[in-house]
Amino acid sequence: MKKLSAMMPTILIAASILATGCGESDCPLTTNSFARFDFLDEQTHHTVKFNQGFNVTGFITTDVTLRDTLEDGTIKETLVKDSLINDTIFNKAESSMSLPLSYTSKTTYVLHYTERMRDTIVITHQNIPYLQNIECGTMMFHHVEDVQYTTWNLRSIEIVNPDIDNEEKRNFNIYYIADITE
Asked: How far apart, in Å, are the Cα atoms of 104 and each of 2, 4, 59, 140?
């Protein structure tokens, strides 16, 4: 019993040091920034749900320099755009989707409704590195400057909130004619 009472102050000091070292972090739970798209009926502005859902792929476009040797032996350089297809980034979108943005200034998505029916969305945005504190590391936020799209299936896209950060909120409304989703 004497040994236990003699060790008690040592145990309390060690426990208080451990508790102080394991303080809670001020880091956010989510550090990724996703753009949220909601699918709405063009007429009623109610949520639209696709019965089958559809896949979304992302493209990264980069500049590539082509070098061509001419007949006189000189080399002609030509700058062209080249696309690299990413894997599917969203499977079976039904009534909304949250997608990451590229660290380049443009992000391109392709919505695959069927094998032949596709729409393309190109978002031009500004990337904003954000550092809350050193323990959390950096995050990348985005500010949407423009959105362009095809209208094979979708009718229009509205920017609801151009600031994309790690908080989940609606950024875009995609409008469809309700009959095509059924």
From this structure: 68, 63, 11, 11
